[in-house]
Amino acid sequence: MSEWPYIIAAYGVSWFVLVSFAFYLMARDRRARRAARGESWP
Amino acid sequence: MTFRRELARARAVAWKDLRTERRSLANFSGVLFLALLMLLLFGFALGPDAAALRESAAGIIWLAVLFSGVLAFNRSYQVELDDGAFETLLLYPGARWPIFVGKLVANLAFVLAVEVVVVPLAGVLFHADLTRSLLGLCGVLLFGTVGFVTLGTFYAAVASRTRAREVLLPLLLLPMLVPVLIAAAKATGALTTGDVMGDAGSWIRLLVAFDLIFFTASLAVYDVVIAG
Amino acid sequence: MKGDVMEVKLEGESRAIARPRWLMPLGLIAFGALASAQTFGFIMSPPDRDMGNLEKIMYVHVPAAWTAFVCFFVVFVESVRYLWTSQERHDLIAAAAAETGAALTALTLMLGSIWGRPTWGVWWTWDARLTSTAVLLVVFVGYLVLRAFTDDPVRRAKWSAAIGILGALNVPIVYMSVQWWRTLHQLQSSPHTLLPAYAMSLRLNGIAALLLAFYFITTRYHVARLERANEELADADALVVTDVETLEASYV
Predict the structure, then answer these.
(1) What's the whole-model pTM score?
(2) What is the dihedral of CA C117, C121, C125, C129, to 10 degrees?
(3) Mean pLDDT of C197-220
């Protein structure tokens, strides 16, 4: 069936975007916490 | 402050903006020639086939007006910003809407003046028959430009006071112009090709509706953006 | 609020920013719910008569679209509330919803494209839904870029609120215009009909997506609070140690 590449792509892209966004939020949080403690961040 | 007083203030703002414009004619010719250049570029990009150009003429006209007009809007706040006159302007008692209306009128005059040259020239370059429904065409140009200038004057109040005004104004303004662009281009296209389907009237009415909606909305929040 | 309390310190001044303890677990639950709902949809729904197995893409595309529009609605509501109350809280929630909404809208467009290619043979159609979603994305991005280039927090909040409200008003107008644009030319409208057999799976996926969006917005909001506290203390610090000339130079 030629449809499966598209289905896999759809689910793959969805998870990639959502998980990346979650990581982005965590990274931003980490940076804010470091700044709050007065440290500098890399 | 009475309404008449405020209206007089609006007129004063418009007049001042226009006079500053007249003294630096370079700006008007700059925008005008940019628009004309765009017409040429569209012509080159879309190919020498007369039929294809005639079909795209309406869209090209509006795109050229939009892209070159965007330059005018940031400038309309530039004068006050450069001289630091903004704070003074805001210190005057009274409402803010005269500032908005005054600048809107000045910008409207500016863009209409550009169109007076650009539109006939586009007709010549793209073999579009503009004389077919001249009155209707003038109506479309007027109402389309009003919508364009209303939103442009509003968003320029924000963009012109940021660090990235050249990028920010188009970025904020152009998505808002999609309805106006659709209606104006469609109406212009219909009027220059004989209006076979009788669409033009509906599109013009839609355009007027858009103008009213956007003018009201812009006016309602202008106080927030100009004093913020 | 009990839970994770972050102390923001600078030069002896400090402020406590509390964060709910259920935030991290919520994230895990939300992702878990999404995975479960998707598995359920995969297993429970038979191939469609017309679309074949492609209807399974609906379970990611439609929830993404729904939640993107929910985010945009949140931006609108919180923008109005900010203008009404001038409480910074509403501005921060709006901004959090705008970021989440931008990501979800971009996802929606990508998924729409992936769905469209095998279904109609094209990666894009100029139908009302896709185009108003594209315009929505640009509106979100413009909102976020404006915030990035405005340093004064009060001005940033006020301008964002104004832009957010106008942008929100524009999206249904764009939708309507594009519909007119198409019907007057009798173009094919995009068939998005959904049979009841898929409704349950869709609903589950929708709820999971909403939960995830709620997690994203809440997390982003609390991070924003922390960032604002940092910003305020940094400003206060700057005012103490900087001389007048340097200060004036920074307020161009």
Answers:
(1) 0.88
(2) -50
(3) 92
